Amino acid sequence: xxxxxxxxxxxxxxxxxxxxxxxxxxxxxxxxxxxxxxxxxxxxxxxxxxxxxxxxxxxxxxxxxxxxxxxxxxxxxxxxxxxxxxxxxxxxxxxxxxxxxxxxxxxxxxxxxxxxxxxxxxxxxxxxxxxxxxxxxxxxxxxxxxxxxxxxxxxxxxxxxxxxxxxxxxxxxxxxxxxxxxxxxxxxxxxxxxxxxxxxxxxxxxxxxxxxxxxxxxxxxxxxxxxxxxxxxxxxxxxxxxxxxxxxxxxxxxxxxxxxxxxxxxxxxxxxxxxxxxxxxxxxxxxxxxxxxxxxxxxxxxxxxxxxxxxxxxxxxxxxxxxxxxxxxxxxxxxxxxxxxxxxxxxxxxxxxxxxxxxxxxxxxxxxxxxxxxxxxxxxxxxxxxxxxxxxxxxxxx
Length: 398
What we know:
The protein is an alpha+beta fold. The chain folds into three domains: 53 residues, no CATH class; 109 residues, no CATH class; 131 residues, no CATH class. Helices cover 30% and strands 22% of the residues. The strands form four sheets. It has a seven-stranded antiparallel sheet with strand order 1-6-5-4-3-7-2, sandwiched between helices. It has a four-stranded antiparallel sheet with strand order 10-8-9-13. It has a two-stranded antiparallel sheet with strand order 11-12. Helix 3 packs across helix 4 and helix 12 packs across helix 13. The N and C termini lie far apart (143 Å).
């Protein structure tokens, strides 16, 4: 044990080789580099923009976001993203020495836009850009517009109004007419859009939306639909939909007065079939045009048993009171107007006999309304029905 103690006292101290290496590094080769500063989002944005600046200096133009050159297209898309974000353009304003972020002032009118064309790019001597002769493109709205409706608050107070309007339509006091224009969208007005009646319950306060050209005036409506929903669409939005989707207005009917004693001589009626037969249900705008001396509801009571009504129930879509003239004469005139689109179909009655219904026509309801009005005014002789255009057109042979 004593021998071990003596050896411990005489041992040489152990030296750390790494520490010795550090101590002899007089040139600082082993010094750790300074930690780089953290790159911020602002730094990245500026570096990205400076790449666009460098491209402009090299090529003398802005990078295109649609070119096939991938590197240029990336720069072009990057510039579009910067221009679309006011925060980014403000942050880069101090680096915009070439004026790439400056948005030109919008022209005050179409004439000013056309005048500011130094290269003549908008010139059209050939007339190829003239689209005045092309048909108007109709707008269609996806069903998700309907999904934005919500259950109508207090619908119980509106339900009787719809019941009353349908009764007026059945009795001929009111009629459905083609949508006449935005000025008719007012509180208290009734319209039919895609087969659903709506009531304009309220028109909100006028709002103004600013643009680079002018201030747009708009009003938000409260539209209540007969299916128990409501929508807060803009007046202009409703106007566009009524115009593009063949909307109708529920308007008071002005009864024709042929003589002075105003004696009702009968009713012209328009019916729609509820047949489940695919051959009949698949026909668009199929309507029966007939006349009755008494109430139409009594006339169609047993429609499902009669081949005259295609052996199926029917629904009344319009009635017209005829004063002081034979209703049969008015009916016959309507049949002649739409003779070209008369239904060509043979029915079998309950006794197995063939029957050819002659009062069914493939014609839009709104066109029938128009024909009745032209008969009332005496102008029907100047018109004929065009089955291709599906509307009445002026005759060229008179």
